[in-house]
Every structure is written in structure tokens, then in C-alpha cells.
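Work Package 3 (structural annotation) set out to generate three-dimensional models for the target panel prioritized at the project kickoff. During this period the team completed the workflow that converts sequence records into C-alpha cells, so that structures can be stored uniformly alongside our sequence database. As a representative example, we reproduce one entry of 251 residues exactly as it appears in the project archive.
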Amino acid sequence: MWNLLALVGLAGVIVAVVALIRGRVRWARIGSRKVAAGVLGGSFLVFVTGAAFAAPAALPQHDLAVAPPSTTNIATASSSSPVPVETSYTPSSAPVGKPVVTAVAPPPPAPTTVASFAPRTRTPVPPSAGLSCTASMSDPHPADYATTDVLVHTGRAGASVTATAHYKTTDTTHSAQASGNGDADITFHISRATPGFTVYVDIAVTAQGETTFCSTFFTPRCTSPGKFPCTEMDDPHRSYTPTGRNSVDSG
């Protein structure tokens, strides 16, 4: 619009100048130099006004001053290092010296993972109530010069087990330690034990300051009647009091 107004004003100036030189221009209805002077003044004013308002739009795009993109460091609250934020300028038809600034929002801060450590706990020691004593013989009637095992269940891994066999003329004691499942196996070698004499075995089980007792027995049998006469037979109903505090658990 302003460009058209400037062209009309320029055309009026040219026609007015011609009328001033020639004295008149009939087709433009300018009959004297006085009228031509008036037309010249009005046309010049129209030309200047149109040219003034049309000047910014007529400027080419490459004449606009565009600042290069810059990087601004913005420190976020959740990070100690600055986060670069790029800003760009977009040229427009606005007057020179007023670039349009577009700000790019910084990315959201990464979530922070806090490592937690559970305190170490020790495996509790089994209570003393778990300690027990149950005994039996692998062979309740072993032959002369054979072996028989005292099988003890303690209910406690690593318990100390002591077994004492009361023969007719002597006492024999052996010890062992319970395995991981709480069992112990103590071997007794039968030499010339009196055939038919019941040998009672007292067992003591100790663990962590606690002790419990139990008993079992075996009766040697005669296998060589010609060499070792089997004349001494034990009374199976003879009384026996175990050395421990628990009742006899025989196998």
C-alpha cells in the first residue's frame, strides 16, 4: 500500500514539473504554472509519506543484522554443573535491532539414586533347648574281637559327645564331635568282653555350656565256646543306675 502511494506521489511530481516547464498540461487539467506548483507540492508530500512508511519492508532480508546463536549456562538446583541452553534468533519483518529470541528449556534433571545398605545380621545361635541325647547300638550283640558303634543324636551340630562303656572288669571311655546334622558315631572294639554280661554305656552331650545325658547297652555273645567257655551269663534283670541325669535310652 505504501509503495503504491509513493509511486502515485512520484508520478504527480513528474507531471507537475512538466507543467511548470510548459505552462500547462491539459490531460492532467493543469492550466497554469500556479496550479502546477500546487500539484508539485502535494505530489511531493504524498511521495515522501509513502516512501517513509514503505522503507523497512523494502529492505532485503540479508541486510538485517542477525546475531549468531549463543550458549548460556544455566545452573539447575539439582546439579552442581551448568547445563548448556541454546538460544536462537529468528529474523522477521520487525525493525533492525530487535531480534526475536527463542529460549530452549533445559532438560529435566536425571533422577538421583541413593544406595542403601542393610546392616549385617549374624545368624542366631540355636537355643540350648535344641540340645538332646538319644543313643543306640549299631550291633547290640557283638561277637568277641568285633566292633560295635554307639550312635548318638544330639540335635546340635558340633556338640561334644563322650561315651563310657562299663565292662565287667573295667570302664572304657571314647569321645567324638557331632557332625553338621548333630549325629555322632563312637566305635568300641570288643576284645575278650565277658559273654552274656550286659555292658551299659553312659553318654554325655555338651554344647555351649549345656550338658545332657543318655544311656544305651550291648551284650557280647560267645562265638568260641571251645576256647572261651560261655559259662558266665549275666542276669538280664540286674539293676543298673546310669551315671547321667536322664533315663536309660537303650537301643
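Residues 153 and 183 are 5 Å apart (CA to CA).
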